[in-house]
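pipeline: protein-struct stage 2 | run 1193 | ITA2B protein
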Amino acid sequence: GQEKLSCNPRKENGSHVVLCELGNPMKAGALITVHMELSVSGLEDMGDAITFQLQLRSKNSPGPANVSVTVPVEAQAEMELRGTSLPATTVLPASWHGVEGSRQLEDHGIKVEHVYQLHNKGPSTVSGVTLHLAVPSQLGDRILLYLLELGTEGGMSCVPPPGLNARQV
């Protein structure tokens, strides 16, 4: 029949140990199958597998039997990128031209701010994420968007693109 095991977690020599009592006494030649479900956290940086060392001990056998079980680890996270532009729509007159040499923002066009938010919807945490964002700054030989500045929040770092605020506006 099926029975639930009584297991007790503890620390032994710096390792986390779970001790499960299978039964006492046990008949000679008994065949036992054990299904265990373990919940382990903090595996994001463990690589692609984790190895459990199992040790089977009996008071009647001369020594413990050691078994290694390797389980593949796959962290899963769903990333979501959200973006918005402020203002949402910008229309420039067909005859508009910027003022050469001016350092005033309004002489170079209408300010448009693009805001992107990268969200981790889980279930795992993520690290080492790289987001490559390509912004069309020119259309032929004309400037489409003049990239003025780049900012981040939340402990991220960004590599500024070449030509960022090239005219020092």
